[in-house]
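Q: Got a minute? One more chain.
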Amino acid sequence: MELLALSFLYQGGQLQKSVNTKSGGKLQTVGKQSTKLGRPTEKPDPLIVNEIIDWIAHGNTLRSYCRLKNKPNWRTIYNWLEKDDGDFITRFAHARDMGADAIAEECLEIIDSPPPLCGSEGNTRLDPAAVQMQKNRVEARLKLLAKWNPKKYGEKVGVEAKGDISLTISTGVPQV
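A: Always. Here it is, folded:
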């Protein structure tokens, strides 16, 4: 097995790249190379953007999309959002709202689905563990929705107070 060492040298306004091998051979790369250091900036593929928007709008998470095979890293997607000069960020925000609605509808589906029965033929009853699991699944989703969008899904905890106090004291003493 041959080990390779990659080295870069900045000479004469060009970045020169060479590869050193363990056997002592040196491979020189020649040609026009970018003088900019760092990762190249690239625009996201419109097909991937549409996939992401659709995925998020269905109530799925961005990280679950990124875990799929041959998909970009979640940091890359957030970098695209930060550098976006088009409509990707507005479409992404709208997809997040639609995804939150999809999660709320999923809560209704979970609650409306009947839990399994347990017990013997003469003594069938609802499985309390399944009921508790359904309740926990819904509560977790509702708490996340309340955190993500408190105006729409949070509990309204508002205390309204007016500072207008009018006080009239009657003493019975005539005023001069």
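A: Strands lie at 4-11, 14-21, 26-28, 117-118, 125-126.
Q: Perfect, thanks.
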